[in-house]
């Protein structure tokens, strides 16, 4: 019996030595903890991976390895899961003794006691940082262009599919822009492929800056890029982005010692409408790109013929607009402003007109917003101010006499230029008195005005000019708000005047504007007066001035002078 017992002990010792050897020689770190996660023992692989020796962590909480994970309750959460099982497996970030972060492939097993509670935990992990880094590098290599670091064709198609799904869910539109560089082959042939690669990287950078947050830019291959636009409401949004992309290459590319002038052509397809799937949209945008290249450099084409025609008309208008000042195509017409009490002409509002040498007369509703968008409204505004002041000064030399001239300025002119300095230069050049000038601003400018805008308007007033708020009432600005701004005149929007006789709400609104405007010391002008009844309605409520077809349409300079002289001849 004693011999049998000795054999069993020897076998158990042999097993223990085997297990100890396996524990010590294991490539994975092995840490045994008690039921409170206090470290009992750790193997040499643990030291090799973490830098901690076994005696440094013995008795310490194993959570020290995972203190930077979330709220520090990583092991508590694992213990909660282990109450429902005996093992947990996953990945976790940890830190070595040196402080270096690394990624673990971690398995945790739990030994339960007779009551089902945790008795011991065994943690086994390996350093998978390099493997993960290699996997991520491989994924990036498979999905991103190595030259530009943009998504490649495969990832682009996936992003486009996601954009279509999102557009369908959000009930909006998506767009595919196929961008091709014009004449890129010549750069490669003359300057070499190294310079060509640098050009592609610079183009990728500029295109990226031209897009909105949330849009995707990728390289399709060669000298072609794809932009996927999401959350599109109107086609105009696409046109604005396309125009920004085209403009991004207007400045020369500075590559080493070379100044390279480059342009691009863009083909556009929209979803829904130009295809129901990714492949069709890509094919149609590519087809539109080819049409754009055939039409010349630095242009774009929509795939849909109707949209394409509209976009090209707008694009042509933009091109003509940029040369309009140089070709002296702008002119002014003058709509008389009538004093309601006396019936005499008190002045005129100068209105801009454009007669293009190829297209003919163009509606201001078409070209003024485009001029705003292109930034052309700034030089056009300077021209208008000088031309209006010159005409108002000319009235005094031909018997018309000193009449007030009203000049419209856009919000961009006020925000981006010194409007008072622009007016001062025009007054100095023409000799016109500032007291005869009214600068008309929009109600939207008042609503969004900051301290700098107020200072600019005050400087206009300091010159001696007056400030009028045009189309008042459409933006719902309160008159109590207006008292904080240098405003002298309110112009009631024509839409209220048109409905005043049929709509009691519009009538009461006009009465309120006139009464409260007068209480703030302002003059009130009724716009769009077309009938005798509208004229009498405004006059009976004390409106100071009026303009509209009831009195006269906008007139050319010579016709306006004749109108003033004739109206004076009819006065009793």
TrEMBL record:
<feature type="domain" description="GGDEF">
    <location>
        <begin position="172"/>
        <end position="305"/>
    </location>
</feature>
<feature type="domain" description="EAL">
    <location>
        <begin position="314"/>
        <end position="568"/>
    </location>
</feature>
<dbReference type="InterPro" id="IPR029787">
    <property type="entry name" value="Nucleotide_cyclase"/>
</dbReference>
<dbReference type="InterPro" id="IPR043128">
    <property type="entry name" value="Rev_trsase/Diguanyl_cyclase"/>
</dbReference>
<dbReference type="InterPro" id="IPR035965">
    <property type="entry name" value="PAS-like_dom_sf"/>
</dbReference>
<dbReference type="InterPro" id="IPR000014">
    <property type="entry name" value="PAS"/>
</dbReference>
<dbReference type="InterPro" id="IPR001633">
    <property type="entry name" value="EAL_dom"/>
</dbReference>
<dbReference type="Pfam" id="PF00563">
    <property type="entry name" value="EAL"/>
</dbReference>
<dbReference type="InterPro" id="IPR000160">
    <property type="entry name" value="GGDEF_dom"/>
</dbReference>
<dbReference type="Pfam" id="PF00990">
    <property type="entry name" value="GGDEF"/>
</dbReference>
<dbReference type="InterPro" id="IPR035919">
    <property type="entry name" value="EAL_sf"/>
</dbReference>
<protein>
    <submittedName>
        <fullName>EAL domain-containing protein</fullName>
    </submittedName>
</protein>
<dbReference type="InterPro" id="IPR052155">
    <property type="entry name" value="Biofilm_reg_signaling"/>
</dbReference>
<dbReference type="Pfam" id="PF13426">
    <property type="entry name" value="PAS_9"/>
</dbReference>
<feature type="domain" description="PAS">
    <location>
        <begin position="15"/>
        <end position="60"/>
    </location>
</feature>
